[in-house]
Specification:
Strand content: 5-15%
Shape: globular
Subcellular location: Nucleus
Enzyme class: transferase
Protein name: NAD-dependent protein deacetylase
Helix content: 25-40%
Organism: Electrophorus electricus (Electric eel)
Bound molecules: 2'-O-acetyl adenosine-5-diphosphoribose
Oligomer: single chain
Main location: nucleus
Distance between the termini: 57 Å
Amino acid sequence: PGDTEMDFLRSLFSRTLGLSPGEKVLDELSLEGVASYIQSGKCKNVICMVGAGISTSAGIPDFRSPGTGLYANLQHYNLPYPEAIFQIDYFKKHPEPFFALARELYPGQFKPTLCHYFIRMLKDKGILKRCYSQNIDTLERVAGLEGEDLIEAHGTFHTSHCVSQFCSKEYSMAWMKGAHPHFTLRCTQTAPLRDIVFFGENLPSRFFTSIKNDFPNCDLLIIMGTSLQVQPFASLVSRVPKNCPRVLINMEKTGQVQLFAAGLLGFGGGLDFDSDGAYRDVVYLSTCDDGCMALADLLGWKAELEELVKREHAAIDSKDASKKDATANQSSECSDKSSPGPEARKSDYQ
Ligand code: OAD
């Protein structure tokens, strides 16, 4: 059916099932409307939902952007299909592609973006309820979010543990960066060594406990840099109250309702920017950095945000190089005494 028919069907179903839109909270469905809502003082609990698009300006590719996304650039790993690199069953048999990629993308070489610091500003202003991130690059932490502020739904590269029941030693990021994949597997027998979530694995339990308390009390949902294609993360957009405004800052529109029938199956509540019944969702099509700067400007926070980015980036730049070396030289010995060092050759395990 065409758009008009879909809108008609939607509103018919809404009325029939009593799913009428909630109360209109924003004066207007625009970034200006969002800014004046934040300034009104009624918006005390902001939740951010973010994905790979918030880190692309730091130099980390996203997954699905045509041409530049990671999934379009994995040919040299000879994967059966791109997502296999993060598929747990594939990884157990072929860990090499993941570890090779991990070395390329390992935290430490990237700086948080303006968007990351905008989220930090929400925290500093006392209105950030929580940031739900799908990213494993740790840039939210580097930007100043602390444990309680952040749910790393797909895990993190910040910590790595050997999952061997005889070991479970924590490994530093610097060590992991240099680790040889085959050493890792030998150390842990069959289980991988890392703290990130693969497809086919459960999300951290903290994700599920937090969403129960956070989302029903959300006053504003800010969604940035995500294609909203991966569940269960994507479905979080439907967990805020019916009248809670949701703003998407992204290069493309995502998370829209595809089929009203999906709503009947329990996957409803997708974003609605354009239908006649749209009443709370705002889209700002731009880079995350530009969108955050535009919002900061409307809020009168622009100079403060620019200053924060400048100060934090300068602090990162001036970090003592010798400190990095010290981290890199930290003990790398696994408690599995039979394991050779990370420099062991592949042939040692064949
Ligand atoms: P995707 O690559 O699927 O989506 C990134 C989104 O950000 C796209 O909609 C881009 O258009 C947009 N984008 C890219 N750069 C941007 C920029 N500078 N400013 C604004 N928007 C930009 O990444 P995710 O949605 O994060 O899962 O992917 C979700 C999950 O799929 C990942 O966590 C990962 C992946 O497979 C696992 O590894 C388990």
